[in-house]
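I had to read the description of the data format several times before I understood it. Each protein is reduced to its one-letter sequence and a matching series of backbone shape codes. The format is easy to grasp once an entry is in front of the reader. For illustration, here is how one protein appears when written out as sequence plus structure tokens:
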Amino acid sequence: MSARPIANSTISFGLVSLPVKLYSTGESSSKVRFNWINRETGSRVKQQYIDSQSGDLVPRDDMIKGYEFAKNQFVTFEPEELKAIEAQSTETIEITEFVPAGEIERIFLDRAYFLGPAKGGARAYRLLSAALRETEKVAIAKYSARGKQYLVMVRPLGEGLILEQLMYPDELRSFEEVPLEDGEVDTAELTLAKQLIEQASNEHFEPEKYRDEVKERVLALIEKKIEGEQITMAPQEEPETKIIDLMEALKASLDSSGARKGPARSASKKKGSSKKASSG
């Protein structure tokens, strides 16, 4: 079945206007979702809003949106006022510049949408895709939709195009906030780590090899519950020992695959038995 577009837009660059359609790249409904149920009646419960001061139930018609400009102080906005301050939704993807494809750090990527040509846009669509591929560039653009302005990147995907929503710089946290302990990289450990990476490497990523095992297990347990079985958690045995030395951990990882070669094997023979400690 053909994918259904979730929005229509127009890519503009220079004097060229390219009508496109946006398609979702994933299926969020694939997630197993649970509802809150009244234990006594078996019916779903509804969310309600309670006044934080009086504790009274607040009907939706009595609610209004507000912005907290100071602690417990709000300025309120009527729906018409909110529409006035929202960005105008032009639904246009306005390209502002082209940059090398490798210039965009992955940390900026938020979500992605497939782009397909709308009626009358096939030639310009394929032209832009081919030009981006051959120049190894991506397009940076502004996209105004749903009352917001998004920073986006348009890049080639095969013979097509994909739009990736980017985060603004002020939406990102700095990695400098992450505490890092001091530590030296040992040459011998680095050799083993590189060997471990090499023996577990493949030339291509094959996503079809992977599946959501947790989802499969949850669905199987749900089926058992529907059939009247009681669900209990099987006890998990704690490992009797654990490797506490980084060098020995690397050697054991290589041993477990049965593919250790060269210097690693010689080093293992000289080192002797692995150091292990009880996990008490």
Observations:
- The chain is about 25% helix and 25% strand.
- The first helix runs from residue 79 to 85.
- Helices lie at 79-85, 122-135, 187-199, 213-226, 246-257, 262-271.
